[in-house]
Amino acid sequence: MSSDDHKQQETTGQPGEEANTRPADQVEQGSGDLEARLSEAEREKDQFKKLAQRAQADLVNYRNRVRSEQEALQARTTERVASRFIEVADQLEKALEPEAASGAEQQWVDGVNGIYQNLLNVLKAEGFERFDAHGEAFDPRRHDALLASPTTEHPPNHVIQQMAAGYTRHGEVVRPAQVEIAAAPENTDEDE
């Protein structure tokens, strides 16, 4: 063996084995690289974790928004269909007024009244409540004033007559009552 082969054998140990011939400053630099890589990996893990949390929160918000939109759509559809039935109830109510029902057989009147009551029960089961506005102070959220009649018999801005009942659902007005309200009579100098 030559002296160069002998030196290489000393540094490498057994033939075929790799020897750790890195100087101490390279070992420190390698551990610094590992710490930097570990720190970078932890930072990336935190970023991915935050990203996953945001994505999960976005999904929850999306589901809530879709559910809310579906509920709102269902409520609007229910109110739209119910408003048509409310119109039918109004027509039945008009048919049952004494002037309209006069001359009709009592069985017919009782049958129409039964249908009317059944329709009101169906509306009530769906959360629609009929309200009577007679004598109430005028409230534009609850009343639709079709007429204003000057009178001294009723306080001004109070309902004198109801042409069509109002309906609420879960406390909110679905259809305002159609009413006639009292207006203060005009004072004229000729009357005095």
Describe this entry's structure for a reader.
The chain is of the alpha+beta class and 192 residues long. The protein has 2 domains: 32-126; 129-192, Nucleotide Exchange Factor Grpe, Chain A, domain 2. It has 4 helices and 6 strands; from the N terminus they run H-H-H-H-E-E-E-E-E-E. It has helices spanning 3-12, 24-95, 98-101, 106-125; strands at 128-131, 143-150, 159-164, 166-169, 172-175, 177-183. A 3-stranded antiparallel β-sheet has the order 1-4-5. Helix 2 (24-95) packs antiparallel against helix 4.
Helical proportion, percent range: 55-70%
The rounded Rg comes to 43 Å
Mean pLDDT across the residues is: 84
List the uncertain runs. Answer: none
Number of helices: 4
* Biggest sheet details: 3 strands, antiparallel
Physical arrangement of strands within the biggest beta sheet: 1-4-5
Q: Kindly estimate the percentage of residues that lie in beta strands according to DSSP.
A: 15-25%
Order of helices and strands: HHHHEEEEEE
Total beta strands: 6
Give the gist of this structure.
With 192 residues, this protein is of the alpha+beta class. 55% of the residues lie in helices and 17% in strands. It is elongated, with a radius of gyration of 43 Å.
